[in-house]
Amino acid sequence: MIKDILVNLSIENKPDVAADYAVSVAKTLDAHLSGVAFAYEPILPGTIFDGVSASIVAANRTECKNAAKAAAERFEQSARGAALTAESRVIGANIEGAVDIFGRLARRYDLSIVRQTNPEGRAEELILEAALFSSGRPVLVVPYIQKEGLQLNRVLLCWDGSRHAARAFADALPLLALSNTINVITISTKGDNQGEISGADIAHHLARHQLKVELKRLVAPDTDVASTILSHAADTSTDLIVMGGYGHSRLREFVLGGATRGMLTSMTVPTLMSH
């Protein structure tokens, strides 16, 4: 069951697609929703800091704190409008600290929800990666172009037989139980039929949960797995993608697998990932 959800709130003065989507998820699942807004410390290279007055730094800090408070207020108003039980918090931290905090916070929730990184969103990118690789919990990534709330008419499950994919399938079961159709896909190169065999096994497993499942094998013309997934999702009007998240840590930085990075960069459909 998914009964406790955490969402990272955007402090930008524009619609927060992750917060809006999180409200719809929590309402669908009758779950408690918590929002966290980070008031980021100013980033000032040492060579520049000497020429910047303390008043300018303080003004920047105050601006970020006010933006975070405004984001929390908007979130709480939206949650109240949806008749949800919800809470929010504002945390002051530098980017590295915020990443560590969010990764640890997410461990205490059933699901975390974050926005897809926009081209300028370095902090969001790191928080997304922390949620995926540090929390031990699933993360639902919302495209920054998302306009609608949670829809579960057709869910696309990407299966490759890996531990990460199995974890994602298990984490997504509460959502799958509410879906109308589940499309399990395997992706392989020409002449490889192992994906089809393993895909049939997982399709049978999900059918035993009394879920309606369709199985399809896709042959990728090259190594661009993400494009193959997103193309199929568009062709089938998919509402949600479920897949494993791949990567490893290197000197405190996460190195994403090709398919994972491709999805996070180009995604057009909300995607639940587990590692």
Describe, in plain words, how this protein is organized in 3D.
With 275 residues, the chain is an alpha/beta fold. The protein folds into 2 domains: 4-142, Rossmann fold (3-Layer(aba) Sandwich); 154-274, Rossmann fold, CATH 3.40.50.620. The protein has 9 helices and 12 strands. The strands form 2 sheets. Strands 3-2-1-4-5-12-9-6-7-8 form a 10-stranded mixed sheet, with helices on both faces. A hairpin with a 2-residue loop joins strand 10 and strand 11 (253-256). Helix 4 (95-106) runs parallel beside helix 5 (122-133) and helix 8 packs across helix 9 (258-266). It is globular, with a radius of gyration of 20 Å.
Descriptors:
275 residues; Rossmann fold; 9 helices; 12 strands; globular
Structural class: alpha/beta
Assembly state here?
single chain
Average pLDDT works out at 86
End-to-end distance: 18 Å
Say what the CATH topology of the largest domain is.
Rossmann fold
Helical run tally:
9
Low-confidence stretches: 250-255
Specify the helix fraction band: 40-55%
Q: What is the topology, as strand order, of the major beta sheet?
A: 3-2-1-4-5-12-9-6-7-8
Number of strands: 12
Layout of helices and strands:
Blueprint: E1 4-8, H1 17-29, E2 32-40, H2 46-49, H3 54-81, E3 86-93, H4 95-106, E4 111-115, H5 122-133, E5 139-142, E6 154-158, H6 163-176, E7 181-188, H7 194-207, E8 213-219, H8 225-235, E9 240-244, E10 247-250, E11 253-256, H9 258-266, E12 271-274
Parallel strand pairs: 1-2, 1-4, 2-3, 4-5, 6-7, 6-9, 7-8, 9-12
Antiparallel strand pairs: 5-12, 10-11
Helix pairs in contact: 4-5, 8-9
